[in-house]
Amino acid sequence: MPLAALLARALVVSLLAPLTPATRGLIGAPELALLRPEAILVSTARGELVDEDALGAALMARRLAGAGLDVRATEPPARPDPLA
């Protein structure tokens, strides 16, 4: 099943992938827009897989129920941090 179809159906998306050229930026604004409003994104993968600005915007707009990130693209995160 294509990623877009999976994202549109998922209630929980869990990222466990390594950082490679193919996975960098895997979840950005277009992918987040496909998620259901009750969906939750969990990433225990490398921080660069998720566009944190797009994720923050989606959360602030309540286009997704929540997110849990184990690793961030920049550690420690910059301040102010929309994901804090």
Assembly type: single chain
Report the strand count. 3
* % residues in beta strands: 5-15%
Low-confidence stretches: none
CATH architecture: 3-Layer(aba) Sandwich
Level-1 CATH class name: Alpha Beta
* Overall average residue pLDDT: 93
Largest sheet: 3 strands, parallel
**Integer count of domains:** 1
Q: What structural category arises from helix and sheet content? A: alpha/beta
CATH topology: Rossmann fold
- Full CATH superfamily name: NAD(P)-binding Rossmann-like Domain
* Shape verdict: globular
Radius of gyration: 12 Å
Helix content estimate: 25-40%
Ends distance? 33 Å
By DSSP (H or I, 4+ residues per run), the number of helices equals 3
Write the layout of secondary structure elements.
Layout: H1 3-9, E1 12-15, H2 29-34, E2 40-43, H3 52-60, E3 66-69
Parallel strand pairs: 1-2, 2-3
Task: Tell me about this structure.
- It comes from uncultured Thermoleophilia bacterium.
- It is an enzyme of class 1 (oxidoreductase).
- GO terms for molecular function: NAD binding; phosphoglycerate dehydrogenase activity.
- Residues 3-83 form the D-isomer specific 2-hydroxyacid dehydrogenase NAD-binding domain.
- The chain is of the alpha/beta class.
- The protein has one domain: Rossmann fold.
- Helices cover 26% and strands 14% of the residues.
- It has helices at residues 3-9, 29-34, 52-60; strands at 12-15, 40-43, 66-69.
- Strands 1-2-3 form a three-stranded parallel β-sheet, with no helix packed on it.
